[in-house]
Amino acid sequence: MSEPGGTVTFLFSDIEGSSRLWERFPVDMGPALVRHDEILRTEIENASGHVFKTVGDAFCAAFSNPASALSAAVEAQRRLFSEDWGATGPLRVRMGLHAGPAEFRNNDYFGGTLNRVARICAAGHGGQILASETLRSMLESDGVDFLALGDFRLRNLNRVERIYQVRVPGLPSHFPPLRSQQNLPHNLPVAPTTFVGRESEIEQIKELLTRSRLLTLLGTGGTGKTRLAIESGREMLEAYPDGVWLVEFATATEPDQVAPAVAGALGVREEPGRDLLESVGEFLQPREMLLIFDNCEHLLDESSRVASRLLATCPKIRILATSRQALRARGETTWPVRPLTSFDVWGRARDRAVTAAEISSFEAVRLFVERARAVQPSFELTDANAPDVARICWRLDGIPLALELAAARLRVLTPAQISERLNDQFRLLKNGAGTVLPHQQTLRALIDWSYDLLEPRERLLFHRLGVFAGGRTLESVEAVCTGGEIESDDVLDLLQQLADKSLIFIEAEDGRDARYTLIESVWQYARERLRESGEFDTLRDRHLDFYLALTESAAPHLNGPDPAGWVHRLRSEFLNLRFALEHAAERAGGAETALRLVVSLERFWEICGNLEDARKAVDAILSRPDASEFPNLLARALLCAARIAWAQDRYADGLALQDRAKPLLEETGDETALGFFHGYRGFLEFSSLDIEEARKSFENALAIGERLQHPKILAIAHAGFGSIAAQEGRLEEALEIKLDTLSRFRAVGDRWIVGYSLWGVAQVALALGQPGRAREALREWAGIARELGNRWSLPYLVQHLADAARLEGKLDLAARLFGAAESLREALAIRLTPSEEVQYHRSISDLRERLPASEYETLWQAGRHLRREAAIELALEG
């Protein structure tokens, strides 16, 4: 038969886990694979398909008719599913279907359609048939149902793909989430531009990481170490079951910020009285994971110490680091990141002109042309401009950042003009046989050059942007960076001009304000220029004032009925808030501003769970000698610190902080603050198991609440009485009080505390043996937690829903959910309190008595391997 042409439908397949099967069954896999190949080839050919390639156990087939391709996939899966595979157990085959144009030459197909179908197939699981939106739209088939799984970003493909699962009666229909980049566990950023070149380097890095557990990419600024590390990690996502996690050290300024940066990237919380690195190590110990430590050079000794300790205690992790110097850690392998390959202008003969064909395959040229087209879509590499392009790439040593900055000038200069200006700008170093440009000097000189080419107002705004960290919005730039020659109306145009010259980048997400970012080396350059300008302290003051205004605007919303938008906005400003807090702790005469900033951030810290960062910032501000000049604010800041201590289970510290706050509150006569003081103190005493003192505190809060007719203080007091009733075994009364408290907080309109109240209702309902009521409360609480991006509540949610399933007799579900809850707790370094531990083991013991031991262990282990979102969905559906 002739090979299909034009619009072709492709069916790709491979066996899931075949490498492991070959290792376990070296004798039996041969015959099994022969049988697998016979089934696939028979069904493809029966449906008039053409097998044009096999690679190992993978099949690549082409069809003229999409219905025939679908039929072949379905019939092959039916036969594979019903086959008796003997010792190897079932061979689970994943399949992908997609249609589009392709070129057939040299007995193979080529084109983007094949890349897409390969990625669709790779995203699936054994026994699953996946289809693209294109294929689904081309056919309808009786007895076949297309289940929309959603829109997915597949590895190395820019366009999002809508993927469907083919569901057929008699075949499995439930599978884990797809292995797309949005579902494979990772925190790698979406690349703002295409990645050019470095294919062989990525393969070498992958190979080196199979032999070395610590690989450090070395290179000067701008050589592309970070991008290469991220793209290498992206290529290895499927190789690390527990994910690839980027840890950025660029904005860390002190050694004691290294471990928190690792913990923050992994979502591990610090526990009071426990070394944070110990918590991180406990989390990583059972996991098979790749960590990318980015920009280690300015914190070299601490980066080395942290890496060495984690590698020593966590046998399954590997670390890929980027640095300008080696970490000098035991077992480290270093690998220099060389510039992109360039045509050797200096060494070639001068008797003829360079042609486009001659230089087009060099990586530096490819990158320059790619970025040039982003600036000037009509740009083409021609024989006329090839000599200048070659000279630019060679003079810039193939440094990616330098090439991107040079390409950005094509808006206003020709390649010949850029080449000429490079000649004028750089003083080349004579070195015997040739001319050499040191990479760092080249990069610095190019940024200098780009900076010098800016108009005066562009230059002024550029260095002022260095006061921010981690991004800036138009609103923040207008507030902080205007003055003198820059008016508010000028800012947007100036930002666009800086973006056009590749000195800043624009990041935009649906529904969010655009953010303007600088890569690390450019940010450091801007910050240095800002210091030189004499404006640094003034700009830091403005920066602090802006973020104080922002957090004070956010505070009432965070305590109100619709906090989500403000939570996400403040979360995106995390680094700027940290910088503002650091300046607030240091600024002379700024105690009032510092205390106001602490008070306004209390609820944000509680929701987001970054409590250790909060504790350190608050401690620094509370230790200011001039804080006592503002007793009312100091008292409220002390209450905030006590609240943080309560959330961290540091009850004695919380009570001590409250002891400092009480005389200040009494001195100022702020009865509202005193009402909250007694309410929060009651919960600290209750958590310390001092029930009688807690009762007195709640009674004091109730009295003040009634006197002031303050609904929130009254709600807090009632919540405390409900907790005491539950503790004393008066469960019916406790439930009644908890439901009343929930109604009070709904009336107050505090959505986050409504979630807390729902938690209380669920706990009492479970104690009363009312799983239905508990489930209803937990589902609503889960909705609030997910809406606000709160992670620390998820293990508790899953555990309580597991208990509900246990009480309902859904023992298989309960066992899986208890396993998932434990895994989630480990992921977030959360430890149960003694009373929570007792209830947990009571539930587990009951479950183990009602399930066979082997069945319980299998289900529990399966739950531990559920991804976070899959665990939540399973719990909520149950």
Characteristic terms for this protein:
878 residues; alpha/beta; five-stranded parallel β-sheet; globular
Q: How would you summarize this macromolecular structure in one to three sentences?
A:
With 878 residues, the protein is an alpha/beta fold.
Count of DSSP helices? 38
What gap, in angstroms, lies between the N and C termini?
Answer: 52 Å
Rg calc: 31 Å
The best one-word shape is globular
Which structural class best describes the helix and strand composition?
alpha/beta
- Widest β-sheet, arrangement of strands: 2-3-1-4-7-9-8
- Tally of DSSP β-strands: 19
- Write down the overall mean pLDDT: 86
Low-confidence stretches: 424-441
Largest sheet: 7 strands, mixed
Structure notes:
This protein is of the alpha/beta class and 878 residues long. Helices cover 57% and strands 11% of the residues. It is globular. The two termini are 52 Å apart.
Give a topology summary.
Layout: E1 7-15, H1 18-24, H2 29-46, E2 50-55, E3 58-63, H3 66-82, E4 93-101, E5 103-105, E6 108-110, H4 112-122, E7 129-132, H5 133-138, E8 145-152, E9 161-167, H6 199-211, E10 214-218, H7 225-235, E11 244-248, H8 258-266, H9 276-284, E12 289-294, H10 300-313, E13 317-323, E14 332-336, H11 356-359, H12 363-375, H13 386-395, H14 400-408, H15 415-425, E15 429-431, E16 434-436, H16 439-452, H17 456-464, E17 472-473, H18 474-480, H19 491-500, E18 505-507, E19 515-517, H20 520-533, H21 536-558, H22 564-572, H23 574-586, H24 591-608, H25 611-622, H26 631-647, H27 651-668, H28 671-687, H29 691-708, H30 711-727, H31 731-748, H32 751-767, H33 771-787, H34 794-807, H35 811-827, H36 834-850, H37 853-864, H38 868-877
Parallel strand pairs: 4-7, 10-13, 10-14, 11-12, 12-13
Antiparallel strand pairs: 1-3, 1-4, 2-3, 5-6, 7-9, 8-9, 15-16, 17-19, 18-19
Helix pairs in contact: 2-3, 6-7, 8-9, 9-10, 12-14, 13-15, 14-16, 17-19, 21-22, 21-23, 21-24, 23-25, 24-25, 24-26, 25-26, 26-27, 26-28, 27-28, 28-29, 28-30, 29-30, 30-31, 31-32, 32-33, 32-34, 33-34, 34-35, 34-38, 35-37, 35-38
